[in-house]
Amino acid sequence: MSNTEGNSLDMPSGLKEWVDDARHALTKGVLTGQLAGEFFDLFIASPFRRRLLEWMRRIGRKVIELENEMAGLSVETLYENDVFVSMVLHASRIASCTHQEEKLEALQNAVLNTALPNAPDEDLQFMFLSFIDTLTPSHLVMLSLSNGTGGGQRMAGPDWQKALDNAFPKLADNLAFYRQVIKDLDAKGLVDEHDILYADVGEHPWPPEITDMGREFIEFITSPLDNGQGRDL
């Protein structure tokens, strides 16, 4: 059976036509400039436009929610806020390059928190935005776990191991993965590993210690709509 027969993928007609033309061209050993341009439009330009449109709809809805919940905040004032506009533009670039919901949510919350009067320093905001760009969902989960329990109490070794196994079920006992993720967070000043992360063989690893900047970063990527910050601006 050929690749075409039995192919259950429901491809758009334009994409299917391009695939057929490209396969035919490659059998002759040549891929024309026209086909290359069509590839760019189908695989890059079109998904980029779709993602960007979905992102802007998402941000638009959340900004209206924020306006409705917080007295003194309006879309009109945000339009005049250069920091907020710059944040939206930078976040939109990052959002258009990811499909990961965890990162999209972090970007969304960062944009919303920029609108608040108690937002971090401007340079710190853009530093945090670059962190969202380069960190993976696993980094964000690890940082959240490092923040400890609801009361901020640091987890003990066995509890930490259990939390890791629950958060990363496919990576259980993968110490090299945990080590690299925490090294990345440490390099950005979000945690301090204190050289106690790596336990001796047969012992439970201990969590890194989250820094003040790490806590501030978590707050920045947490929705203000969930915690009611600054309802009276």
Can you walk through the features of this model?
This protein has two domains: 107 residues, no CATH class; 90 residues, Arc Repressor Mutant, subunit A (Orthogonal Bundle), CATH 1.10.10. The N terminus and C terminus are likely disordered. The N and C termini lie far apart (65 Å). The chain is globular. Helix 1 runs antiparallel to helix 2, helix 2 packs across helix 5 and helix 4 packs antiparallel against helix 5. With 233 residues, the protein is mostly helical.
Largest sheet: 2 strands, antiparallel
Give the overall average pLDDT.
Answer: 78
Q: Which band does the percent of strand residues land in?
A: under 5%
Overall structural class, as computed from helix and strand content, comes to mainly alpha
CA-CA gap between termini: 65 Å
Number of domains: 2
Give me the strand/helix succession. Answer: HHHHHHHHHEEHH
